[in-house]
Amino acid sequence: MQQTTPVVELLSGIYRFLPNTLTASLIVLGIFLGKISWILVGLGGVGLTILIAFFQYGKLKFAGTYGSLPGAAAVSACSIMPSTSQSFETIPSLWMATALFYMTYILKNAITVYTKRPKGARSDSLTVQHRKGVGIVSIITTVILLAFLIIPRAFWSQCESIMGAVLGGALGIAFGYFWWLLLDLCGPDVYPDIHGVMIGLRPGSVAT
Amino acid sequence: MAIWTEYVVATFIHNSQILPETIMCGIILLSILLASQPLVAVAIGVAVTQIMTQGIGRVIMGKTPEGAQLRSALDGCSTGFVGKSWARLLGKDPQLLWNPNAPSVFMATIAFFSAWGIALQQIYKDEINAGIMKKPALVATMVLSFLVLVLAFCFRIYTGCESYLSAIGGTVIGFLFGFLGCIALGYATDRKATNIWGIPLLRRKAKGKR
After folding, report:
1. Residue from the list B7, B114, B197 with its beta carbon closest to the beta carbon of A32
2. B73: domain range?
3. Is the pLDDT of residue B92 over 90?
């Protein structure tokens, strides 16, 4: 049997808990640093986690253990939540849904940050150029992360089934997009702005 | 109730145990994804705080070795998924030396963020008073951050992972590093490097227009 090297173990530890890392960081840092938009995005991630848990429960109820990986080893290697059960549910994939939820949300906001037409400011002014710079860098890094983290997990790791990854991914993308739209309805440019560069367009708009 | 104990409580406790390293990884990841320079400053600040707290702990352990215990990097008091793997990466023995007199790195990390948030309100008080950021939102998050700090303190004491001395020591060190670090960095960079809210700065705007 081939042994895992410590480096692979270290990176896989970070990789395995990616959605947890983003959810916990956004909520806790949002509270500590007074970033309302981060708290709202993190709460969206929690909401999606609950939704996926219901989906998985419904699937177990009506489709039995189809798509489940049996054994405690599968749970400890693949699950992002500690569980005492002896199987790991892959349909729909919780990891894929939550990771893609955050990626979609960040990408949608980055595109808005990049494409938003300035009102009352010249498009070649320093602040507008800075905002556009943040947007384009964020778009590129998110796409790179998407390619190097999410696609390998979906297609090459033994923790995901194709059906679970596609279903989870679709739910995550849809939820991420609509969560951004919902927050934008509540406070345009302010509440959905995870990048924190749009408040200058609407000062005084952050209210409880 | 199975769902409550098996998922909700277990997930909450698990994420609380690994919170400092989760946030460390999260802040690095978010600073890359969001292309945020102020977040990089926070990440460097918290990394320095953790290293300094560990350094102070080592000095204290050298002076007062009584009560020191060897603990596994795999037990519940170890602060995270990185630590567990990191300990194995650096040495074959994954045990960690814990001393009740050494300041807590867990509490130092949490207190650092709490203090950074308080310092931000101090640095940008002119903008807050001018209504660029609404005060009720900031007061609400400040109250919540205090509650999180208290909960983290109680959690570490209740689970037997810290002594009162180590928890208080860690909290004081983290708070000092966070508050003074943010204030110093803010004023050294004309408040640009700490502008995590992305708010327009009044002084700079006035200079630019006149």
Report:
1. B114
2. 2-205
3. no
- Of residues A119 and B174, more confidently modeled: B174
pLDDT of residue A106: 93
Read off the pLDDT of residues B188-210 as tens digits, 9 standing for 90 and up: 988 888 888 888 777 655 554 44
Interface test with A, best of B17, B19, B25, B123 (most A CBs within 10 A): B25
DSSP string, chain B: -HHIIIIIIHHHHHHHHTHHHHHHHHHHHHHHHTT-HHHHHHHHHHHHHHHHHHHHHHHHHHH--TT-EEEETTSTTS--HHHHHHHHHH-S--EEEE-TTSPPHHHHHHHHHHHHHHHHHHHTHHHHHTTSS-HHHHHHHHHHHHHHHHHHHHHHHHTTSS-HHHHHHHHHHHHHHHHHHHHHHHHHTTTSTT-TT-PPPHHHHHHHH-
Model ipTM? 0.85
Q: Is B210 a member of any domain?
A: no
Q: Note whether residue B17 is domain-resident.
A: yes
